[in-house]
Amino acid sequence: MPIRPVWIVDDDRSIRWVFEKALQREGICHRMFESANDALAALADDSPQVVVSDIRMPGQTGISLLEHIKTHLPHIPVIIMTAYSDLESAVSAFRGGAFEYLPKPFDVDTAVELIRKALDESLKGGGESEPEETAPEILGQAPAMQEVFRAIGRLSQSQATVLITGESGSGKELVARALHRHSPRSSRPFIAINTAAIPRDLLESELFGHERGAFTGAQTARQGRFEQAEGGTLFLDEIGDMPAELQTRLLRVLSDGHFYRVGGMQPIRSNVRVIAATHQDLDQRVREGLFREDLYHRLNVIRLRLPSLRERSQDIPLLLRHFLQKSARELGVEPKRLADAALRYLTGQAFPGNVRQLENLCHWLTVMAPGQTVEIADLPPDFRDLPPPPASGDWTLALDREVDAALSRGERGIIDGLAQEFERILILRALQHTGGRRIEAAQLLGLGRNTLTRKIQEMGLDTPGDDDEPG
After folding, report:
1. Does residue 13 share a domain with residue 42?
2. Do 335 and 302 sit in the same domain of this protein?
3. Which of 67, 91, 156, 157 is an S-S bond match for 182, by CB 3.0 to 4.6 Å?
């Protein structure tokens, strides 16, 4: 189903121009307004999917627009833009129901990513608790992902705190949602918060709420994420970036089961399952004194490592098809398909941004590729300029993937098994190259003839065609 447009409201023509070009590039439909008055008037016969508004404009302010939307269209996310010098207004907007605020000057890519998050929230139908039937599925046939699925199954009846580790973009929030969806708490809220995305001076109130008058701009009391997630699951993404003083408060909640709102005097009991995630090495951050060791042990009850896309490259074709279909549904167009050459080419790429980068690529292709069949030449320039995948494969990368897969499966003694396989392949290829002449093969391998003969016998490779002087 096509989404409604994103509304940009700003009296600065240059800001509107920047957003227009960025949203056009991303294939996101949009409307531009130079005042809050114009946007309010347009609400009479139209409605947006997301609103991005400046605070200070001639006529009514962005705060007035925010208040009107939250009163009449509460499920529409509103992103408030503000200059750094206008932090007090930003705090007030944040507490008044704004989805997020965007400080000026801003990075265009950051702004677009924020709009995409708001679009995701809006398309869920409002609120941050995701209905079970709309929860995204996790896709993967690679052994490393099958191990993740098994872990989710084993944890389905557990209330234990889980720490999810993995590279950025590998899908940690999807795993957290799956853990919630298959838990006894599935009927209660799932609340997600990226602790690195919220300024540290706002994060405490965001987590624990505040009482009226707790700080400038706190005109009403507000629940924090812990209260919103009561009885359900709270997902704390990028936990490694949490400021030290909030680490202490979080530890107290996990230890004692209660907390205080900012400015509050009464303890509030908390019945919340915490799932945390990080792309950082928490062990190293503990050694460097950047993360509390006692909090680390509280969070690290069950650790679930999510593999990078490099470790599950066999899933790339499956994911490409899925995301091309998803983008087509969102934009109301026919899904594109990848030519065989393009599919092979992309399957051989590393995707340092993992699944998120692959999903972004599919959205770009849905919007920008000229035909229904995508060829290599239709890929974005940053993908076309990548070195081609090696013709015979990078054996060290393949070995790296095999080791990771074996570790994910919990195998033991893997060095012996891999070393034997390594020797077997070397010997077989050398014998094939020399036509079965063992003396020559031993010389190529740097082995003695007797050593090679013994290894051939131990590996069961001794066949009639392996004579020293064939024919």
Report:
1. yes
2. no
3. 156
pLDDT in tens, the chain (471 residues): 456 899 999 999 999 999 999 998 888 899 999 999 999 998 888 889 999 999 888 889 888 888 888 888 888 899 988 765 454 555 566 566 778 778 778 888 888 988 988 888 787 654 333 333 333 457 887 878 888 888 888 887 788 899 999 999 989 999 999 899 888 898 999 999 998 888 877 888 888 888 887 676 667 878 889 889 999 999 999 999 888 888 998 999 998 888 888 888 888 898 999 999 999 999 999 999 999 999 999 999 999 999 998 888 888 998 999 999 999 988 888 889 999 888 988 988 888 899 999 999 999 999 998 778 898 888 998 887 655 544 444 566 667 667 766 775 667 788 888 888 888 888 888 887 887 788 888 888 998 888 888 888 887 775 444 444 444
Are 79 and 137 within one domain? no
296 and 423 in one domain?
A: no
Q: What domain count does the chain have? A: 4
In a domain, 396, yes or no: no
- Cβ atoms of 236 and 195 within 8 Å: the answer is yes
Coil vs helix vs strand at 25:
helix
| Range of the structural domain that residue 425 is part of | 413-466
Q: What is the CA radius of gyration of the chain?
A: 28
Kindly state whether residues 76 and 177 are assigned to the same domain: no
Last residue of a domain, one of 346, 365, 384: 384
- Beta strands 100-104 and 30-33, pairing class: unpaired
Q: Is 225 helix (H, G, I), strand (E, B) or coil?
A: helix
Instruction: State the residue for tokens 């004692």.
Output: 256
Alpha-carbon distance of 62 to 37, in angstroms, equals 10
Q: Residue 223 is which amino acid?
A: Q
Spatial CA neighbour of 61 closest among 86, 31, 29, 84: 86
